[in-house]
Amino acid sequence: MAEDKSQAKIKFFTRESDESLHVLDTPLFAPVSLKRYGLSEIVNHLLGLEKPIPFDFLVDGELLRTSLQEYLTKKGLSTETILNVEYTRAVLPPSYLNSFDNDDWVSALDVGGNKIVSGSYDGIVRTWNLSGKVEKQYSGHSGAVRAVKYVSNTRMVSGGNDRTLRLWKTKNDDVKNLDEFEDVENAHTLAILEGHKAPVVSIDVRGEKILSASYDNTIGIWSTNYKEMTAVDPVSDLGEKLSTASKKRRKLALKDGSIRRRAPLSLLESHKAPVEQAIFDSNDSTVGYSVSQDHMIKTWDLVTSRCVDTKTTSYSLLSIVEMPARRLLACGSSARHIILHDPRMDSSSKIIQKQLIGHNNFVVSLDTCPENEYMLCSGSHDGTVRVWDVRSDAPLYTITREDKSVQKGINDKVFAVKWAKDVGIISGGQDKKLQFNKGDNLFKK
């Protein structure tokens, strides 16, 4: 009948644990013109909720972002098909909370407990409280700090354009081993980690091991315990042909000779271009992944220091994050999109399982939602942070920079994003600000 052709047959269901959100899955007819808002009205009516709840809808595991008619047409389905539609609490737009002013470009971020640590192009590592007060500053790097990571609540590690990593002590009030602070002037520096020959742009920590990615095409493996690494003589390589900057660093090393200097446990070599990021596998600390400007995703056996798998794309890869519950790697690219890759697939398989498209420039930073296995956020040189659900190939929301005094397109690159429980999405960039955005139920599944 003509009337039936304008309707779709739907069977609603949910995986929500809240029993009050469950309805009978008896099929019903709904106008094919309906989108999320109209479907939300139906479900709220069926549930008999006094206060309406916004819902998202999934059809065959894919987030519905169009009308039912458009979905049916896209999939080549008729209105006679029964659609099994899952409803789940909607993710609300992340609202702007606050911004903290920094002295220079913000290039790295991490969160530990109720503290935020940032790395900046002025070479300083800073820890902030949630009120925006800088509690401590850590000086020592002679170039921009490109990576920071908490090791524990009393330790942290940073890396930068001066080609070194630094292990820092973050608290002095509970020191048990006083020889850690034998050099009062540099009391916070536990050790300088040397071995890379170009900027260190990424750090990951798992247990007692550190991974670093460098523009010298290598990945470094280090220990969080300086006693496990070989000491480095600061003048041992003066026979090399050194640049003026390198000679200056060596002179500083001699001057600060009391600071421990350590060599890597291993340097991993296989990439043919600068390595942008290296991470540990979340379930197996003996496995690592890396992405590079050579277009490759590599899997590493960190015990034998061997590359055990290589996947090649058509573009430079600039960032990577693991989504362990989905068994996926998300990789940001110079082609402006994010690719989703299953590292378990063999080399003959098609590498790209899905592309997330929406950014207008390089995707240089990624982080996952702490409480929703399907969601991640991305920072880009287009000046935005985008929030994604991997069940949809378009972004859920776009976060822009809130500094209205900055002309659009100028000084607005985002360099770093971090998604932390109870804090929200923190982003930093060329506008010299740490920006905070959070949705009321952004972490709900």
From TrEMBL:
It comes from the Eukaryota. Coiled coil: none annotated. Keywords: Nucleus, Repeat, Ribosome biogenesis, rRNA processing, WD repeat. The keyword Cytoplasm does not apply. Gene3D superfamilies: YVTN repeat-like/Quinoprotein amine dehydrogenase. GO terms for molecular function: ribonucleoprotein complex binding. GO terms for cellular component: nucleoplasm; PeBoW complex; preribosome, large subunit precursor. It is found in: Nucleus, Nucleolus; Nucleus, Nucleoplasm. One of its GO terms (biological process) is protein-RNA complex remodeling. WD repeats lie at residues 138-178, 193-232, 268-310, 356-398. The keyword Repeat applies. Residues 9-72 form the NLE domain. It holds the Pfam family NLE. Component of the NOP7 complex, which is required for maturation of the 25S and 5.8S ribosomal RNAs and formation of the 60S ribosome. Component of the NOP7 complex, composed of ERB1, NOP7 and YTM1. Within the NOP7 complex ERB1 appears to interact directly with NOP7 and YTM1. The NOP7 complex also associates with the 66S pre-ribosome. Belongs to the WD repeat WDR12/YTM1 family. This is Ribosome biogenesis protein YTM1. It comes from Eremothecium cymbalariae (strain CBS 270.75 / DBVPG 7215 / KCTC 17166 / NRRL Y-17582). The gene is YTM1.
